[in-house]
Amino acid sequence: MSSINPIVQVAQQMLLGGAVKQNHALEHATIVLLSKKYPDVRLAGISFAAGFFVFGDIPTEAILPAAEEALNLLRTTQPELAVHERCGTNLAVAGMLTGLSAMTVAKMRRPFNTANNVILASTAALILARPLGLAVQRHFTTQTPNASMTITGVKPMNLFGTPAHFVSTDNPGAAGLFS
Q: Which letter, b or e, does each residue of 107-131 get, where b requires 16 or more Cβ atoms within 10 Å of its Cβ?
């Protein structure tokens, strides 16, 4: 069971605290390892202060060993597993950058505010979004798990008709809001 109280969990989530960022990194690394073992299964995840969900139709007993291996790899030889190509952070960065660039060009004076320039600015934003999204993950939304993080269990469930597993973690070293 997580040692973080519910109020701190909510604050961690809203402020992207250390527990959330470390679970986010562990979620990515776990999904990478599971994807190698189950290449035909579409996997997704979402992280919280108390752990993370793995969505996908895979055996529950496969998740704990993958998460434990992922935790070890993140702390030792493969910290880059924290950053994932298909992370929602990349989508959020792409959406914000594209929207802002389109709005900026649309508000310019003639002759710069044409539809062609809006499309050009949006396309340029999408091209920049990929490396920027990976950098945002690396520096803001993920963090290498600290030595106090442990995996405490895996619970299978079904959410909205989708097979899911919740991987519970405990991380006393990241229980503060700004860990």
A: eeeeeeeeeebbeebbeebeeebee
Element containing residue 156 per DSSP (H, E)? strand 150-159
State pLDDT tens for residues 9-31. 666 666 677 889 999 999 999 99
Q: Is residue 1 included in any domain, yes or no?
A: no
Q: Can you say how many angstroms the Cα of residue 47 is from the centroid of all Cα atoms in its chain?
A: 7
Q: What tokens appear for 151 in the block? A: 């995996």
pTM: 0.87
Q: Whole domain around residue 155: which residue ranges? A: 6-83+142-174
Q: What is the pLDDT of residues 67-124, one digit of tens each?
A: 999 999 999 999 999 999 999 999 999 999 999 999 999 898 888 888 899 999 999 9
Number of domains within the chain: 2
CA dist 25 and 99 (Å) reads 27
| Mean pLDDT confidence for 45-49 | 94
What CATH number did the domain enclosing 54 receive?
Answer: 3.30.980.10
> Per-residue DSSP letters for 49-100?
TTEEEEESS--GGGHHHHHHHHHHHHHTT-GGGG--TT-HHHHHHHHHHHHH
DSSP 3-state of 46: strand
